[in-house]
């Protein structure tokens, strides 16, 4: 049985999904959960991309001790220096450097000849090996690269010191058989290939990222890269939970397995979905709401007689709990803390106290507090940013079928000043957002608005995701509350706070000349 390393890039390639912008607290929470999931490597970001990226890679590398943390760098010394500064405090610093190798990228993007591309790649790997014990080198757009050139450059970067060679299907163009054969070709035509591990990294433009990744495993790859829930650039990356469960369920075929704790999959998927605002489709393999639901009579009959008739994956395998425990307004602090620990979260006393208060407030309005509710309260508290510029203090909305919806909102800024405004709109949410726009005093475009319930029932918590834009800066935000309008306002305030935090960092950097 071959052990396949799982390289998670949710925080780098996943965060490149349109409209996703995670803050440091959120990235740290995801990193800690990836550690619990037991991934082998996590790519925490692209340190040279921005000060924010640099700081999050650094903090993650310094916090996460049981997983090798890596950061991305182009084939230039400045990027490698930034990556080293960010990663050097980690338990096992690892660099991920790349250069494009395909004719299209060489000609139009890099404007370099084959020889120049080889030289840049070799120079960067040699330079990186002065600092990093482990270097992964990626041939961007490998699947559209001439095979003989690919073999040549791989040989050179291995001689220069690379330990892992990653062959991405960057634009999701490869077909499984063809992509797999690229690995066979490389294994047969690169003389020093036995010195390295081969890795696969697939995008999902044609919906084949997972199949391509599995084909690479069949043809000799020992590392699979991807993201949780398959999030990422354009159509996303290979969904790691699908790859891992496919390898597990079809061990007989692939003769390979991973070290992932599969029963942490659901929790990881929920956290990533919550913090990125990218809702998992109900029919998504492995983690979708309907993945274990049997609808038709024939299927239900079969499952009742013998589960394996229609169920190849059990919900328990991936951590889907069939009966979640319910707490209520009479539940004490002890039961509350126990449940949070049982759900797998580590919490300090301060967090327990704050979330317990939120729990009690919610329990006054909602009869049964489910695990989903608890996780929502807990995650909101964990990622709450004390540096937020504005807090929502109160809101009032007047709505009637024959009335013009009107909202009145009070915000409190960091200095304790209150800002109160009122405005109308053609609907309640528009009235709310027009009012908030007045409070902030800047023009904001709403690019996306989505709402979902946390669990079932009329009294369920509402969770709202928004994407907003001011000038050319984009931001997303999330808010939950029992009332849909309050959740809508919280999401908007959250998005604008993030926008303002990014603007503030930019201004600070400009001031110090970065
Ligand atoms: O898709 C890709 O080619 C990448 C590289 C940077 C590895 O993400
Ligand atoms: Zn990628």
Automatic annotation (TrEMBL):
Coiled-coil regions listed: none
Entry-linked PROSITE patterns: AIPM_HOMOCIT_SYNTH_1, AIPM_HOMOCIT_SYNTH_2, PYR_CT
EC number: 2.3.3.13
Reactions catalysed according to its record: 3-methyl-2-oxobutanoate + acetyl-CoA + H2O = (2S)-2-isopropylmalate + CoA + H(+)
Spans annotated as Regulatory domain: 391-514
Residues that bind Mn(2+): 13, 201, 203, 237
Pathway noted in the entry: Amino-acid biosynthesis; L-leucine biosynthesis; L-leucine from 3-methyl-2-oxobutanoate: step 1/4
SUPFAM superfamilies: 2-isopropylmalate synthase LeuA, allosteric (dimerisation) domain, Aldolase
Record-linked PANTHER family: 2-ISOPROPYLMALATE SYNTHASE 1, CHLOROPLASTIC-RELATED, HOMOCITRATE SYNTHASE-RELATED
Name of the protein described by the UniProt record: 2-isopropylmalate synthase
Lineage of the organism: Bacteria, Bacillati, Bacillota, Bacilli, Bacillales
Gene (name only): leuA
